[in-house]
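Dear H.,

Thanks for agreeing to be a second pair of eyes. The structure we're designing against is below in token form, covering all 115 positions.
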């Protein structure tokens, strides 16, 4: 078949997991996937029972236990330790909030949040 979509779907994957049906052509993704099956976790939180083999996820988790929030919103009292969370929050100040409550000061840009 000369259809490019069909050809893409039939490409053989170089890396196949022996424990599940995961397949990929990317060695880095495959190594990361294999960590999910590893029973003994390399990173264990001292504050709770969270365990992982992913260093990035572990660092992100540890920030949840931190009492002081170092990243603060300049437009309101929102504070966090996670850069991605702050970035996502800042977006709420930028968008037009077309849905406004008649009974209080609640506003949102998303109709599904307005009930």
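And this is the sequence the design step returned. I haven't edited it by hand at all.
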């Amino acid at each position: 078949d000369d259809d490019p979509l069909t050809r893409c779907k039939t490409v053989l994957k170089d890396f196949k997991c022996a424990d599940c049906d995961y397949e990929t052509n990317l060695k880095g993704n495959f190594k990361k996937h294999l960590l999910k099956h590893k029973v003994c976790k390399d990173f264990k939180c001292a504050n709770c029972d969270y365990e992982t083999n992913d260093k990035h996820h572990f660092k992100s988790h540890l920030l949840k236990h931190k009492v002081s929030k170092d990243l603060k919103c300049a437009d309101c009292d929102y504070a966090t330790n996670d850069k991605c969370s702050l970035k996502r929050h800042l977006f709420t100040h930028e968008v037009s909030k077309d849905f406004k409550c008649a009974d209080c000061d609640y506003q949102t840009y998303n109709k599904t949040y307005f009930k």
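Two observations from my side: The longest helix spans residues 83-94. The chain has a mean pLDDT of 83.

Warmly,
E.
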